[in-house]
Amino acid sequence: QVQLVESGGGLVQPGGSLRLSCAASGSILGINAMGWYRQARGKQRELVAAMSSGGSTNYADSVKGRFTISRDNAKNAVYLQMSSLKPEDTAVYYCNADVRYLRGSYVFRNDYWGQGTQVTVSS
User: Fold this and answer.
1) Most buried of 13, 115, 117, 118, CB within 10 angstroms?
2) E strands, 10-90, where?
3) 18-49 pLDDT, tens per residue?
4) Which of 95, 94, 96, 92 lies closest to 10, judged by CA?
């Protein structure tokens, strides 16, 4: 079984910064893409940022220049440094990982989600 555990959300004033962390655990053989999504109240979940195992990144236009995604492959972890936060960044942020794992003698691949962490940007 693979689990993703997130941390780092909270309340911050406009213009402030937060750093989200997500660590994957379990019988993991490798992780392809890892990323962050968010879902604001009444809206669909959207991609914020993603990074391939090779280091290629993809950002939503709304966060380019403000957010930075990074990974520590040795720790099966992904981070999101968020700066210049705006009220419209308020949402539940979810970690996502495309994981290859071992079960018995077989290798499986599946998409996993964290439980979500609330980020609120407000004065």
Assistant:
1) 117
2) 10-12, 18-25, 28-39, 46-51, 57-59, 67-72, 77-82
3) 999 999 999 899 999 999 999 999 999 999 99
4) 92
pLDDT tens for each residue of 76-117: 999 999 999 999 999 999 999 999 998 889 999 999 999 999
C-beta separation of 52 from 33 below 8 A: yes
At 42, list the tokens. 């009444």
Other beta carbons within 10 Å of 117 = 22
Query: Residue 20 to residues 102, 117, 123: CA-CA distances in angstroms?
Result: 27, 8, 20
The CA–CA distances, whole Å, from 101 to 2, 27, 97 equal 8, 5, 12
